[in-house]
Amino acid sequence: MLFDTHAHVNFNDFKDDHEDVLTRAREKNVVMINVGSQISTSERAAEMAVKYAKTFAAVGLHPIHLQSFEVKEEGLTFMSRAEDFDVEAYALLAAKDQVVAIGECGLDYYHIDLNGDLDLIKQKQKQVLNLQIDLANQHELPLILHCRGSKMNPQDAYKDLLRELKKNLPRKRGVLHCFGSNWEVAQEFLELGFYLGFTGVITFDKTGNLAEVVRNVPEAQMLVETDCPYLTPDPYRGKRNEPIYVEYVVKKIAELRNLSFEQAAEITTRNAKNLFNVVV
Q: CA angle, 50 as apex, 61 and 92 as ends, to 5°?
């Protein structure tokens, strides 16, 4: 069994063939968490989790959806729609069966409207993050955290996120999804009790930073994910990602840590079950 802890089969990229994608995942014995980024995709994730086997959901508001502007990512362009965090609406979703986390939520200084007041935008991101931490605590759920620094300073959002978490520490902790910083920063999150999620980026990262983190992260605090439809691993780079490609993330972790594929799969699946409190 493999456990993709961060997928977006609930996104429009899969609207025409999501059932085929989910069937392929079941055939490969891949369990997944579909993660919401706003109310519509959170609702969709919760619906899919009830309808389809081996499928769970996370519900939350992504920081890029706090303002309306054009977002460009991996050759895709879309308009983010500004949304206020509706505590009651998300609380209803959080109480549903198969919803195992709050998120994705966090800080994003990379996709930010530079025409706006940057200080106000960052402050709003922090306020909404804390509302979601409170929601996670109320429902005894872990967080799925998104963090991406600015183009000028890739570490700035990580430093701010650490400060917010230390002030308002989630009781069930959570995961730094698609961890993209260095070992020094990783250690600070690990010491707080968070897990680190690794994507297909580790199969083509040229900096060496992620390889160092993967080699050194404690065995019990590492997870694998696809972030599909984004971040497709080698050898499928350039194609739409999907949950079955989590296999290549596991293979890379096995290579970097000198494990067998089976050992890496067992470890990361066990960690996912532990963090998200699921039985599959």
A: 45
